[in-house]
Amino acid sequence: MARVRLENVTKQYEDVTAVDDVSMEIEDGEFVTFVGPSGCGKSTTMETVAGLTKPTDGRVYIGDDDVTTLAPKDRGVAMVFQNIALFPHMDVFENISFGLRLRTYDDEEIQRRVEQAADIVQLEGMLDRMPDEMSGGQRQRVAIARAIVRNPDVFLMDEPLANLDAKLRVHMRTELQRLHRELGTTIIYVTHDQAEAMTMSDRIAVLNAGKLQQIAPPLECYNEPANLFVAGFIGSPSMNFAEGTLDESGLETANFRVDVDPERIPGATVGDEITLGVRPEDVHLSRDADALGQATDPIDARTDVLEPMGDEIFVYLLLAEGIERSMEEDPASSSDQLLMSVTPDTDVSENQDVDVVLDRSKIHLFETESGEALCHGLTDRSERESGTTATETEADS
Ligand code: ADP
């Protein structure tokens, strides 16, 4: 087991900066997932830890050792990739033990390690199977067992579940969590799938265009995204955004107004361009507003498309400007729309005029230009005295 530390790691490929000044510390035994859209630098960052890529700048440490220039085999890491390369002419035992035999362990030790690893990934009784007699999930487990037998300090996994079907992927997520619990080894995991990242990790590192956006526990990224990118990337469906300008008493957007004392927003001044963010589950029909601690004033809307998901209904709303545009048969722009999620028993239909409100305690404000978060949750003074919200914590800290 070991701690992993990246210090100002940059990787430059001619005109592409694949990794841009990334620093982070991963604790011994921690499960950290690198997540972000395709091409954001997840794999390259991991490859600098694996030793498959040498950073153009910066240092990589595993434990107390500077491994920046060390060969992969000398780093105490084991890797599992998306494309499982099992030897087709070898059975499971031979596939799992291949690396050990290269390292000249004696037969007894090899047998012991392979049986233990097969047990952990639940492949007991399958050691004499050939790869083509196994399912995709079983083959992936062989690949993981092959990594386990090496007894690494750090596991590096690059989209190991990407080629599996949806059901198996969900199952393997649980298996990997169990594996982590049993082995206690540091795991760095790469995925573009934010649901995978959210469900498995102790912390997630969100990357965009080679830059680290936020590294925090999944729920912190969800509830207190550091910037607009994280807010939009984490959570499905995505957060709603509306751009506006701050005046003396609140934020005015094209379709609605939210009252807020500018002095309550750390770092903001009147006249600033601010983007409001609110998740679909924090948009409510006005008639349900009583259940909320604090709601915004009602916002005029018209229901557009409904998507019943079984456990909830996604309601696409057109706001005032969007309704006007739709009458002129112009496409509505995204700021004229709002996605609301309601419980499946909600009485709502398409093309219905409704009033909606936003849960003030769940409103996020971001600086439009830089994208940086300003606050999470709005409160007024009277609630400030009794309540606790993210805004209060931030304002006080
Ligand atoms: P991700 O894993 O997030 O999809 P990568 O780390 O694979 O992203 O790639 C980050 C960026 O670096 C991409 O723009 C990619 O095209 C570029 N890149 C990666 N490897 C190389 C390489 N060997 N040569 C040139 N460009 C590369």
Question: What is the secondary structure topology, with strand pairs?
Answer:
Blueprint (H helix, E strand, L loop, with lengths): L3 E10 L2 E11 L4 E5 L6 H9 L6 E6 L2 E2 L10 E5 L10 H11 L4 H14 L15 H13 L5 E5 L7 H18 L2 E6 L2 H7 L2 E6 L2 E6 L1 H6 L4 H6 L6 E8 L2 E4 L3 E3 L13 E6 L4 E3 L13 E10 L4 E7 H8 L9 E6 L10 E6 L5 E4 L5 E4 L4 H6 L3 H7 L1
Parallel strand pairs: 3-8, 3-9, 6-7, 7-8
Antiparallel strand pairs: 1-2, 1-4, 4-5, 9-10, 11-12, 11-14, 12-13, 14-20, 15-19, 16-17, 16-19, 17-18, 20-21
Helix pairs in contact: 2-3, 2-4, 3-4
Bound molecules: adenosine-5'-diphosphate (ADP).
GO cellular component, one term: ATP-binding cassette (ABC) transporter complex, substrate-binding subunit-containing
EC number: 7.5.2.13
Subunit structure: The complex is composed of two ATP-binding proteins (XacJ and XacK), two transmembrane proteins (XacH and XacI) and a solute-binding protein (XacG).
